[in-house]
Design a protein that fits this description.
Number of domains: 2
CATH superfamily of the largest domain: Aldolase class I
Radius of gyration: 21 Å
CATH topology of the largest domain: TIM Barrel
Helix content: 25-40%
Distance between the termini: 65 Å
Order of helices and strands: EHEEHEEEEHEHEHEHEHEHEHHEHE
Bound molecules: phosphoenolpyruvate, manganese (II) ion
CATH class of the largest domain: Alpha Beta
């Protein structure tokens, strides 16, 4: 359960209530919320103790989350949480666009994609360096070299960077290359060992929904991250497996208003992996923003026919510009706004 104490409750009383629980063998977690004390219980509370807690004057309300999570529940905060990726705020009214190629392939390919993403108005640059491919013979990513190219491109265009981490052993490389946001891919959403390791880095994490994960399972995975030290989780709906083969996956928009009831975490939508068809990406993006998404994550490639992965779903540079322009309008529909882009650094002259 989650105990929401009245604003202004003296710290001595908060400590006493916490001790009542802890001495009965119930572990607790305190919300970082500044405006009021909020305490989550992490173990089962017997009915006698629950009754005594409920009767305390300091307790404004006792909330029972609909699932086994605590820290990611909406009642653990006083409003939606905002996750800062580099200097870019995600959530709490600030809508962002993540764009870039599926995979980092060559310096030229990445530079083309990064330049067009920045020019189009996207905020965060994506690019896979370690790729979770269904075929062992398909391009597996450039590894550390890919992270290096992504970091350089991010610096060149003034964009924070995001990339997928597949194994805890890759974490030092992600930190060495200052990757601003660590992506957990759909295939690893329930790799709990990976979630625990990644959480210790205390970097923002974009947690994609598993291919066939329920909403409750997804939030449980977010709770793993929060329980192990990562407060900065962004959820990302990327389509789920259904009986329908006409699209790559089925985009579940229902999750947007539902997540906003259940959780304080920001939630983005990746229409590229959901649809798998470029022409469907703009309308799905508009629908996602109208339904309350805190941002979009899309793939872009200057020459999709030559892409080493997911070329069939990549937007062209001009299409990305249209999508960001639409995002500005549709973010406003829900009283939100497109985040400001970070300024592009002034190019330094090279040579003597
Ligand atoms: C990706 O972002 O390139 C990717 C592999 O996504 P997902 O994990 O959603 O399939
Ligand atoms: Mn991809």
């Amino acid at each position: 359960m989650i105990l929401r104490l009245w604003p202004g409750t003296p710290e001595a009383r908060v400590a006493a209530i916490t001790a009542m629980l802890e001495t009965s063998g119930v572990r607790t977690s305190r919300s970082p919320e500044m405006n009021r004390p909020i305490i989550a219980t992490l173990d089962k509370v017997d009915s006698e103790l629950a009754g005594r807690i409920d009767a305390l004057d300091e307790v404004e309300s006792v909330v029972h989350p609909v699932g086994e999570w605590r820290r990611v529940d909406s009642s653990f905060r006083d409003g939606p949480s905002v996750v800062r990726v580099g200097g870019v705020p995600v959530g709490g009214g600030s809508v962002v666009v993540i764009a870039g190629p599926c995979s980092v392939e060559t310096p030229e390919q990445l530079d083309d994609a990064a330049r067009c993403a920045q020019k189009a108005g996207a905020h965060i640059l994506r690019g896979g360096a370690y790729k979770p491919r269904t075929s062992p013979y398909a391009f597996q990513g450039l590894g550390q070299e890919g992270l290096h190219l992504l970091k350089e491109a991010g610096l060149r265009y003034g964009m924070p960077i995001i990339s997928e981490i597949m194994d805890a052993a890759q974490l030092p490389a992600f930190l060495d290359h200052d990757v601003d946001c660590l992506q957990i891919g759909a295939r690893n959403m329930q790799n709990f060992t990976l979630l625990k390791s990644v959480a210790t880095a205390r970097r923002p994490v974009l947690l994609k929904r598993g291919l066939s994960a329920t909403i409750k399972e997804w939030l449980q995975s977010a709770e793993y991250l929060a329980a192990h030290g990562c407060d900065n989780v962004i959820l990302c709906e990327r389509g789920i497996r259904t009986f329908e083969p006409a699209t790559r996956n089925t985009l579940d928009l229902t999750v947007l208003p539902l997540m906003q009831q259940w959780s304080h975490l920001p939630i983005m939508v990746d229409p590229s992996h959901a649809a798998g068809i470029p022409g469907l990406i703009p309308p799905l993006s508009r629908a996602a923003l109208a339904a309350g998404a805190d941002g979009l994550a899309v793939e872009v490639h200057a020459r999709p026919e030559d892409a080493k992965s997911d070329g069939g779903q990549a937007l062209l540079p001009g299409e990305l510009a249209g999508l960001v322009a639409d995002a500005r309008v549709y973010a406003a529909v829900g009283g939100r706004h497109l985040a400001q882009q970070l300024p592009r650094p002034v190019a330094r002259p090279t040579g003597g």
